[in-house]
Amino acid sequence: MEIDSFTELVPLLSNFWRTIPAAQQLKLESSLTLLKQDHQLSQLHFLGRLEAHSVAYLLAFGTPGLDVFRERKFYYSRNAVDWILLLEPTDWTEEWSRLWGEFTGNASFAFKMRSLAAGSAGVVVREQDRLWYVIHAILREAAGVPRGALRMSTERDVVLNPFFQGLTRAEMVQLANYQHFRRPERPAEENLRGRKECDLSFDVFDRLEVDVLPEGKSFTMRLDDSGRVVVWSSLHWLGLEFFHKADSNVYGFFYQGDGRKNWDLPFMVEV
After folding, report:
1. Phi first, then psi: what are they for 173, rounded to 5°?
2. Phi, psi of 28 (to 5 degrees)
3. Which of 46, 120, 157, 267 suits a disulfide with 115, CB 3.0-4.6 Å?
4. pLDDT tens for residues 256-269?
5. Which is higher by pLDDT, 116 or 61?
6. Eight-class DSSP state of 201
7. How far, in Å, CA of 38 to CA of 41, rounded?
8. In angstroms, rounded to a whole number, what is the distance separating the alpha carbons of residues 246 and 3?
9. How far is CA 221 from CA 159, 184, 216, 271, in A?
10. What 3-state DSSP class applies to 224?
C-alpha cells in the first residue's frame, strides 16, 4: 500500500479480515512519510507484518526513481516509528526459501541450513538477511496487480500507469487479468500469447495464471458483499492478499504471516 494512499486503502483490509489499530496506523503514516522524505524516495509502500516469536516485524519497500523496481530498498521496524534499512545479502540463494525455523525477533539470530551440494558445509543465515530474502520472495512470487496498473516505458522503465482506471466487474474475477508485481521474466511473446487484444506497453508482464506452479491453482479469489472489491490470496506465501476495487485505480497488497513458504501446496490441490 503506497503511503500516499494509506488512509484510503487501510479500510479495505477488512475484506480479508485484517486490520491495523488506529494508534499504529497513525504511527505508520507519520513515520513512513518522514522516511520517504528523508531517503528521497519517489514512492514508498507498506507491505505488512511478519509475525516472529517475540515481536512483529513491520515491512516496507520503496524506490528513489520513477521505475518501480530499480534500486528498490527494503525496510523493517519493530515499533512503527524507527525504520531500519535492509541491505541485500551478498551470498543469498533461492535455497533460503527452505528455511523453516520460526523467526525469533532477534535480527542477529543465525539459522543453520544444510547445503544441497554434496560435500558442502552447512549454510548460516542471519535473521536480518533472511528477512530481506522473504520480502524479496513475496514480492517476486506472490504480489500481484491488475492488468494495466504497470506500464513499460519506451526507455524500458517499469512505471505506475497514471491512466489506469481499473478493471470492470466482469474482468476483475478472471485470473488472466492479473500480473506479477515484478519485471518481466518470461519472453514477451509468451506473455502476449492468447490475448484477443493486447497493448505492448502493459501486456509484457508475467501473468499470474501461467507462472506459478501448479498453474492456475496458486491463488484463490473472493468478492466482498457488494461485488465491487475482489481479493486474491496466495497459497504459496500464506498471508499475502492483494485487492482491487472495480472501475477504479484502487488496488494494493498486504502481508500478514510468519515468513515461511507453503511447500505443501502441490499436495493440497488437484493438479
Report:
1. -95, 5
2. -65, -45
3. 120
4. 999 999 988 877 77
5. 61
6. T
7. 8
8. 21
9. 26, 23, 11, 18
10. coil
Length of the chain: 271
Helix/strand/coil for 60: strand
DSSP 62: E
Tell how far CA 37 is from the center of its chain.
22
CB–CB of 236/141 below 8 Å? yes
Please name the helix (run of DSSP H) or strand (run of DSSP E) that holds residue 215, with its range, or none: none
DSSP assignments along 111-166, one per residue? EEE--SSTTPPPEEEEHHHHHHHHHHHHHHHT-EEETTSEEE-TTS-EEE-TT---
| Torsion sign across C-alpha atoms 79, 126, 139, 228 | negative
Instruction: With beta carbons less than 8 A apart as the criterion, state whether 138 and 131 touch.
Output: no
> DSSP 3-state assignment of 73?
strand
Burial of 217 (0-12, 13-18, 19+ CB in 10 A): middle
